[in-house]
Amino acid sequence: KINKERLLSTINTSANYGALPNGGLCRLALSEDDRKIRDIFMEWMKECRLDIRIDDVGNMYGRRPGKNPDAHPVVLGSHLDTQPIGGRYDGILGVMGALEVVRTLNDYGIETERPIEIVNFTNEEGARFIPSMLGSGIVANAITQGEVLKIVDKDHLKFVDELKTIGYKGSSENRLKEMYCYFELHIEQGPILEANRQSIGAVTGIQGISTLEVVITGRTSHAGTTPMENRNDAMLSAAKMIQDVYKSYENFPGSLITIGQIQSLPNVTNSVAGQVVFSIDIRHPEDAIRMLITKELKERLSTTALINKMDLLIKDLMEVKAEKFSGKIVREIQLAANKLGYSSMKLISGAGHDAKFMNQMAPTGMIFIPSIGGVSHCEEEFSTDDDIEKGVQVLLELVLRFANR
Amino acid sequence: KINKERLLSTINTSANYGALPNGGLCRLALSEDDRKIRDIFMEWMKECRLDIRIDDVGNMYGRRPGKNPDAHPVVLGSHLDTQPIGGRYDGILGVMGALEVVRTLNDYGIETERPIEIVNFTNEEGARFIPSMLGSGIVANAITQGEVLKIVDKDHLKFVDELKTIGYKGSSENRLKEMYCYFELHIEQGPILEANRQSIGAVTGIQGISTLEVVITGRTSHAGTTPMENRNDAMLSAAKMIQDVYKSYENFPGSLITIGQIQSLPNVTNSVAGQVVFSIDIRHPEDAIRMLITKELKERLSTTALINKMDLLIKDLMEVKAEKFSGKIVREIQLAANKLGYSSMKLISGAGHDAKFMNQMAPTGMIFIPSIGGVSHCEEEFSTDDDIEKGVQVLLELVLRFANR
Ligand SMILES: NC(=O)NCCC(=O)O
Ligand SMILES: NC(=O)NCCC(=O)O
Q1: Which among A85, A132, A272 is the nearest to B270, CB-wise?
Q2: Distance between the two ends of chain A, CA-based, in angstroms?
């Protein structure tokens, strides 16, 4: 049995780095707070006598040897970064849960056949640097080294420079290469487990994401002297387009569409906006439908731009295809839950996760626990201590099964 | 006669500080580029042997003594700051035009009865620090010292600190106190003079401005896991409200409504916007109508917020009442233009100007010259060399008349 007190205390300690007023966290990837929690996590891994590696994009690995040191490891992990207004559980549970599994094995002096590796992936959130799931994407070769060099944040700071600044630029030889399987424990971030009163979710797959950037260019001019008829106001067109975009989801039940980011230029009160830029996040469990939505949206926006005499540029910022996890692993997760006496159900993940890319390297499983109120990416994000305990207990159970095969 | 070459060369020199790629300027108040042009302007005033003063909010004055040194001066001026995407003429013409008047008087060794003062007012644009017309507003006691202490820019940098940083914090004793009259030469920034093929505008008044800040608060949540029905999306409501706002001008012909500034929180692609903040700039020549528009707008926004279950806060960022200039001065401007053989017409100013507050201290006149294409607050802002020359010639003519009374 895991040590619940110790587990909750690690999560509480983590919540001190980047703390927001109402219990949430702002711990953007490669920020000073990210550095601090990494340093602490490093200490904790050392205390567990793990072999520590840092790879070239800052992913942190801690390896516990097995009886058979050359066998491919069972890997457990997630991420320690958060959204700008994020919760204290999100990826943190998966990393601290993995640490608790190792600590428990150490407590009982259990030696497994296979080595076990725990991982903290860099920039899963995609809040500071796009794309999201960056660390895992690179390890799975879904993102090239050339692409990484071009990644910058809103202030044009380079990902690679910021990584050096916080002291977590390691070597590409340290990347995760071969593994037996990957498990990620995560909060559901949605309402399904709670609505169905189930403790454990066995995740069958992850829906795909398209992220677009819409750049609308009109002409800036004086707010006090330009007659309404003579304006080329990018803000007015943006408002129309945002409503267009939100309407389009009505034609595609089950789709999710979000406009989260917006900027205007010159962004002053007394000049007409010459340019407005906004993002669109489009999701659907089926890639074909997501692509259809994206195509229709682009056409709709082009028409609105034409009618309103705006220049329009739509950039594809990110595309992540849907992922299906092995049915065998899904069954094993439910069996493990069952053995421990926990209720469980299958469900699909609305959010992207590092597990998506790990699944391209080895059989992968995801365990969800309920999010109270179904909310995440906000300070109100919450999971109960009991559910947290159950999630990590299932993770331990799976490790005991898979690391001894 | 003024020296046209010299005048154009000072305007060209000014255009080197804060230069944008297409001929425009970004020279925000109290920026490093503002400091540089202030230093140069200071040198030029010294070369003219003017008595220089800097007041407590950074307004710069240069005084040319008159035969009667105790007589109230004739004051000429405008501002050297610009919008983030601004033109090279805007307030610059009024300051450099005033300098050229003094240089011409020096060339010819003309001594006037009254002293002449030229002024560069701080932060007229209101682009970096709200309110606009800050320097002149303070001199006219329309803005209190307590209010000034609270003024910050978008990055929360304090106006008073930034003023010290660029080295232009002087003493309140140096403020402009008593004057005989004030003249400001400015580009029209609108289409009226060009449409009427007139060289000189005699400005009869300035329309009022209300600037509001609308804060819409919903709830941020995860873009991939929050069903559309469960969202409290501030961006969607903002888009509706922006269209509401723009529609309202249709009920009030002659009004101008502008939404220039927008921010979203947390401003990431993969979280629903929990908060959106945008500005509204409302103008009408008649204060009663402007107030009616403002009232109706607030009601409309409240209704939309209620329907969409959003928290709504509307802040009054700035209110500047309409101003009427003396009919006598308007006539004198047209007489001066006429004497010089230039066509002229009366018109009202859509933009706010330092002259608005100067008019509360002494009889004030504004001279407009045509803006090609009627545009301003953009890089395309342009006035012809001939019109610039005519404008400054009229300014000189008025100085010769008023400074010898
Ligand atoms: N789990 C999670 O919130 N990941 C961020 C990537 C996304 O789904 O947008
Ligand atoms: N002249 C000018 O552009 N002033 C800025 C103040 C305003 O009218 O918004």
Answers
A1: A132
A2: 21
Q: Which of A84, A267, A269 sits opposite B126 (nearest CB)?
A: A269
Q: What is the mean pLDDT of residues B66-79?
A: 97
Taking only the tens place, the pLDDT of each residue in A18-34 is: 999 999 999 999 999 99
For range A301-328, the mean pLDDT: 97
- From CA B93, how far away is CA B76, in angstroms rounded? 11
Could you give the 3-state DSSP secondary structure of residue A102? helix
* Six-digit token string for B73: 């001066």
Q: DSSP states of A362-395 as a string?
A: S-EEEEEEPPGGG--SSTT----HHHHHHHHHHH
Amino acid symbol at B329: I
Q: What is the model's pLDDT at position A248?
A: 85
Average pLDDT over residues B361-366: 98
Find out whether A284 and A256 touch, Cβ atoms under 8 Å: yes
Judge whether B362 is closer than 8 Å to chain A, CB to CB: no
At B29, the pLDDT band (50, 70, 90 cuts) reads: very high
In the block, tokens 């949206």 appear at A297
Assess A268–B contact: CB distance below 8 Å, yes or no: yes
Whether residue A271 and residue B377 make contact (CB cut-off 8 A), yes or no, is: yes
Of B225, B235, B260, the CB nearest to A223: B260
Q: Is the CB of residue B268 less than 8 Å from the CB of residue A84?
A: yes
Q: What are the CA-CA distances from residue B98 to residues A287, A350, A375, A405 (Å)?
A: 66, 65, 62, 88
d(Cα A379, Cα A27) in Å, to the nearest integer?
12
pLDDT tens digits for B379-393? 999 999 999 999 999
Q: Alpha helix locations (H) across A121-233?
A: 134-139, 145-150, 159-165, 192-195
**Is A373 in CB contact (< 8 Å) with chain B?**
no
Predicted local confidence at residue A249, as pLDDT? 85
Please check the confidence at residue B152 and state whether its pLDDT lies above 90: yes
- Look at residue B231 in the predicted model and tell me its pLDDT: 95
Residue-wise pLDDT tens digits, B234-287: 999 999 999 999 998 888 999 999 999 999 999 999 999 999 999 999 999 999
Cβ neighbours of residue A57 closer than 8 Å, sequence gap 6 or more: A122, A134, A135, A138, A148, A163
pLDDT tens-digit profile of A75-104?
Answer: 999 999 999 999 999 999 999 999 999 999
Please tell me the predicted confidence (pLDDT) of residue A368: 98
Q: What is the pLDDT of residues A137-161, one digit of tens each?
A: 999 999 999 999 999 999 999 999 9
CB proximity A274 to B under 8 Å: yes
List C-alpha distances in Å: A383 to A93, A341, B101, B259.
10, 19, 73, 41
Q: Which residue of A has its CA nearest to B279?
A: A269
Residues B26-53, mean pLDDT to the nearest whole number: 98
Which residue, B95, B88, B16, is CA-closest to B59?
B95
CA distance A170 to chain B (A): 28
Cis status, amide bond into A131, omega within 30 of 0: yes
> B157: buried, middle or exposed (CB in 10 Å: 19+, 13-18, 0-12)?
middle
CB contacts, 8 Å: B259 with chain A: 235-236, 273
What predicted TM-score, i.e. pTM, was given to this entire model?
0.94
Distance CA A302, CA A194 (A): 41
Helix (H) or strand (E) run with residue B201 in it:
strand B200-206
Terminal alpha carbon distance of chain B:
21
Q: Are B91 and B78 in contact (CB under 8 A)?
A: yes
Question: Tokens 């904790």 correspond to what residue?
Answer: A44
Judge whether A299 and B289 are in contact, CB under 8 Å.
no
